[in-house]
Amino acid sequence: MSHGYYIWYRVTSDSRDTETAIRGMMARLCCRSGCPGRLLKKLGEPGLWMEVYEGITDPDRFTRLLAQVVDEYDIEMFIDGPRHTECFIDTTAVSAACHTA
Length: 101
Hints:
- The protein is an alpha+beta fold.
- The chain contains two helices and four strands, in the order E-H-E-E-H-E.
């Protein structure tokens, strides 16, 4: 069973420096956890960002590594308010029941 982490927050500035810091932190997390992440920006609201990490098989280890890199990169200085972390369990895939003519 794998887990997906969805972490959203508001940034203090939608700038190159902010994005460089966040992407650097995500790259370090990938090196340590083996799980690449994706960075999303909300359409029409560029100051609302989301990190997505999927396929996590050891959520306790991932949570610990995530906290370490957030601290190492001093991410709070780029964030306006808290980081909201949601973790979902990946259930079995839904099979398509489509019929082609």
